[in-house]
């Protein structure tokens, strides 16, 4: 398998002053960060050291165009022995690789939160605290929960509350009511009310829900989304199905609702069709008297798995690399699975999204791929 090279990619990102976006709040949402056994082996340098830098480096220029880049950490950082499915525990260096790439917020409530029990939850929290990264979804005690539920994403006079929930923990027991945020309408209503009391402009719920490997949301997802919207949650970001599901942006003169049912996989060892990649989502907010969602879009990303130097390696690649190679006549360098994933994802979302288009990052601008201009309502 030929390794796709990134030389063309980095010519696309020449940074300009962030003063262009000082008046807006930009957030990128990132899907499932998995840690299967082959990924752990690939990152191993020696018996005690791991390095994930190259896994995420191709996305670093993109993440750094946002104020916040928020990812679903779907492993524990519970220490050795490091294991993949079904009881995930990844090296702490996985968090380092994400942070180095520009991820500065994590959500940790998912069905693998309790894979290593209460001690694993505690150690994951301790590791993330030591790295000074914002995170929410799992907590050591009620005091810790009160301080990070919600996490506030703020810039200038704009503030968004971020809440995180999961449908369950694969049957692993957790200490109620604070160690893992479970989907419970009474608890969600209480958390949303508290967020409003904090005076935030809007509320984001990053939620682990749905049916694995299904490309469309189920009735439970749709009903819960409508219920949350009635409670005042206007931004809902989904994970868990490990495949991409549609995005719906309902907007009118006075308000909006945004639901992304599933981001799919960001990085994993899943190689079957539809599961070997995902999307990242771009949301940009501006405020006059009230906060408004002024841009929304997505970008497909694909996980390259290649073999060299007697070991496998993984890299998350943006669709811009695919487009650049194709435009330059270098299609022979494109992995056929990359082509299939891009074609599947674009066709599916073009047919099933509502008011949400693909984004191209050009310098510090987020542009509509189809219209080659900023995506404005």
UniProtKB/TrEMBL annotation:
CDD domains attached to this UniProt entry: MPP_CapA
Domain Capsule synthesis protein CapA residue range list: 26-270
Pfam families linked to this entry: PGA_cap
Domain of life: Bacteria
Keywords of this entry: Signal
Endpoints of the signal sequence: 1-21
Family membership: Belongs to the CapA family.
Name of the protein in question: CapA family protein
């Amino acid at each position: 398998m030929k390794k796709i090279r990134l030389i063309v990619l980095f010519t696309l990102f020449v940074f300009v002053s962030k003063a262009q976006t000082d008046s807006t709040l930009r957030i990128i949402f990132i899907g499932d960060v998995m840690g299967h056994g082959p990924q752990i082996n690939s990152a191993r340098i020696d018996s005690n050291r791991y390095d994930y830098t190259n896994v995420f480096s191709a996305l670093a220029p993109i993440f750094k165009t946002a104020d916040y880049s928020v990812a679903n950490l779907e492993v524990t950082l519970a220490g050795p022995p490091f294991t993949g499915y079904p009881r995930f525990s990844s090296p702490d260096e996985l968090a380092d690789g994400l942070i180095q790439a520009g991820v500065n917020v994590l959500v940790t409530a998912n069905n693998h939160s309790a894979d290593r029990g209460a001690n694993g939850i505690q150690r994951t929290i301790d590791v993330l605290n030591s790295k000074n990264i914002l995170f929410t979804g799992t907590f050591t005690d009620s005091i810790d929960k009160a301080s990070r539920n919600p996490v506030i994403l703020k810039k200038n006079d704009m503030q968004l509350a971020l809440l995180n929930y999961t449908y369950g923990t694969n049957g692993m027991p957790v200490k109620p009511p604070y160690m893992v945020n479970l989907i419970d309408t009474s608890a969600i209503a209480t958390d949303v009310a508290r967020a409003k009391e904090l005076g935030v402009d809007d509320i984001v719920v990053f939620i682990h829900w749905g049916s694995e490997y299904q490309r469309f949301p189920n009735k439970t997802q749709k009903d819960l989304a409508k219920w949350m919207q009635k409670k005042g949650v206007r931004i809902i970001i989904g994970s868990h199905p490990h495949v991409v599901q549609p995005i719906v942006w309902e907007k009118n003169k006075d308000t909006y609702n945004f639901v992304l049912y599933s981001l799919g996989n960001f990085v994993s060892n899943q190689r079957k069709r539809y599961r070997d990649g995902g999307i990242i989502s771009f949301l940009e907010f501006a405020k006059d008297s009230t906060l408004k969602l002024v841009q929304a879009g997505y970008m497909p990303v694909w996980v390259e798995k290649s073999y060299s130097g007697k070991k496998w390696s993984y890299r998350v690649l943006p669709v811009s690399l695919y487009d650049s190679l194709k435009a330059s006549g270098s299609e022979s360098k494109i992995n056929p699975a990359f082509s299939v994933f891009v074609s599947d994802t674009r066709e599916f979302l073009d047919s099933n999204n509502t008011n949400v288009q693909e984004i191209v990052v050009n310098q510090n601008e987020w542009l509509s791929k189809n219209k080659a201009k900023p995506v404005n309502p």
